[in-house]
Amino acid sequence: MNALLRTWGPGLGLALAACVVLPLVLPPYWIYLAVAAVVSGVLMQSYGVIVGRAGVMSLCQMSFAAIGAWVVLRLNLADAPGGLLLWLLLGGLAAVPVGVAIGLPALRIRGVNLAVVTLGFAVSTDIVLNANQFPGTTELKTVVRPDLFASDAAYFRLAVIVFVLIAIGLALLNQTRIGRSWLELRHSERAAAAHGISVARSKLTAFAISAFIAGIGGGLMAGQLGLVVSGNFAMMQSLALFAVAVLIGPHNPEGAVMGGVFGAVMATVLEKLRLPQDLGGILFGALAIFALRSGVSQTDFTRARKRERDARRLLEPGARKTRAPLDGDQAAGLAAGDPQGRASTGAPVSTGAPVSTELGGLDVRGLTVRFGEVVALDGVDLTVPAGGVTGLIGPNGAGKSTLISAVTGFLARYDGTVELAGRSIDRLTPSARARRGLRRTFQTTAIAPELTQGEYLAIVAGRRLREEEAEDVLAFFGCPPADVPVSILDAGTRRLLDVAAAIAARPLVALLDEPGAGQSAAESLRLGHRLAQVPGRFGVSILLVEHDMDLVRAACGHVTVLDFGHVIASGPTLDVLDAPAVRAAYLGTVLEETS
Ligand code: ADP
Ligand code: MG
User: CB within 10 Å: which end of the chain, N or C, has fewer?
Assistant: First the structure.
């Protein structure tokens, strides 16, 4: 409750103060502008969902708004029951199916191509609107406001209430899996899929919700102006607001307010200065290019700075440090652990979710992958037994990462079969495989820097972890506390976080692609000992792709050696690493260097 007040108190207080004070002190024209600012603030909130949060380039939000306005005006013309408040809602709902329809092509395309599709829709809406008038225009029948909100001052309050309700709704939504998934979607669709997020559903929901909010914004605008014209929803408006959105970051409520004020006041300021209106669009466009290049909006930047400042306090001496030295409990666990990866007995089971009893391993049979002429994998057999840590080693280009990608569903096609816990998963998408109990890490880590470690754990795990559970798994892998933002972690610690998250998700099998990269020799060895404990402690089996032989020895009970897509050896770690054939083919030099 206290935390809720701390986060929401100032914002709600400001909204309340604005509702009470502004209508009293502002002259009528400025009240009119204030209403316009809040209405564009609501439109900004719709950009906040689709552009700010989901990172989708949508240039047609004003077309959704036009639908909302059209519905409100049509119902107003018909004197439909319920009044403006109900009509607003219906206008928002009417925009949803259109939003989903526009979102459908977005499932296959992204980035600039998607921008073109949405721009196309905005252009066709322009044409339709120019050829037709909004309902009530010929009859000159303006929107009837509810008695309570009849004056401009009162309508300002209504607009603020709508804005606040949407802001609260979005904040709640951001706590859900779908809301969190948008952040990851913006950063990496590949990573999102690897974490069990259905990219299609996530994007369509973002389109639907942003269209809903834009529809309400359009209806509010109709209520503000009484009647609207096509120019209110012109394509150029969509573009200008998009630029403002990219620049400011309207997924943060303060950004939506700022964007709304800019949007409403800019035109007046330019008019007063006798400058052409297009100048505003050009200015925002130029600034937006900078924001797009840096990839960070103004409000995200400010928030990140504050978060980092707070987090550095957590990292000061006295607080737990990055790469914390082992505490007594963990040191004892490590000493008792069997370095050959058969440590599954006796290791303390962590607090948190019960260890999965439904253990299941991974069975790969005859896996063959071709990239054109290159045969990256050729009839590979590999087993990751339940409760074990299996190593997969081999020189660069041997096909290790390709094997992980095939198993987790990231390759369009492969020959052979993959079974997880005895069931075939060959026909499943990456996100479906992830939900069946697979997690992978990528050779290049891609963690959205605007997340805290705790938020990242929640995304990867697909559920909110209890605080002790999150801190426990982070500490186990030597990461700082959960509240520390990813942006201040060094590359090595991000890799550890990625591993910690994959394990915290409690999949049946975690496939880790070179987690030791970027770690010092000592850290790497420590990671190896910890990975050896994972099956017993977390109930997760591991396939470990690694170059560092000390790490492999510390972690793996068994290893398989790949060379040019063929398995050249497989068996207990020490036997395989000592086999003359393996040493000759690949390991000789490496072993001499590291042992
Ligand atoms: P490793 O992870 O063992 O270093 P990879 O699995 O990344 O090796 O690569 C195996 C082989 O497949 C290499 O010859 C590589 O060039 C090729 N390869 C990997 N991914 C692709 C791709 N997307 N397109 C074409 N060739 C690829
Ligand atoms: Mg690789």
Answer: N
Q: What are the angstrom distances between the C-alpha of 576 and each of 384, 506, 571? A: 16, 29, 6
* 95: pLDDT strictly greater than 80: yes
Tokens at residue 586, please?
A: 């690949």
Residue 334 pLDDT class (50, 70, 90 cuts): very low
Residue among 190, 370, 371, 411 to mutate when testing ligand 1 (max atoms within 8 A of CB): 371
Q: What digits encode the pLDDT tens for the residues 193-228?
A: 999 988 888 999 999 999 999 999 999 999 999 888
pLDDT at 339 over 70: no
Q: What is the DSSP letter of 578?
A: H
The CB of 400 under 6 Å from ligand 1? The reply is yes
What single string gives the DSSP state of each residue in 258-269?
HHHHHHHHHHHH
Domain assignments of the chain as residue spans, ordered by start = 52-233, 235-303, 340-437+507-594, 449-505
Q: How many CB atoms lie within 10 A of CB 243?
A: 23
Mean residue pLDDT of the chain comes to 84
Q: How far apart, in whole angstroms, are the C-alpha atoms of residue 287 and residue 276?
A: 18
Summarised one tens digit per residue, pLDDT across range 307-333 is: 888 888 777 665 544 444 444 344 333
What is the CA(376)–ligand 1 centre distance, in A? 6
Distance from Cα 399 to the centre of ligand 1, integer Å: 6
CA angle, 307 as apex, 303 and 313 as ends, to 5°? Answer: 155
The environment of the single-atom ion ligand 2, i.e. residues with CB closer than 5 A, is 401, 443
Ligand 1 atom closest to the Cα of residue 400 is 3
What dihedral angle (degrees, nearest 10) is formed by the CA atoms of 272, 276, 277, 282? -120
Residues near 540 by Cβ (< 8 Å), separated by ≥ 6? 356, 503, 506, 507, 508, 509, 510, 534
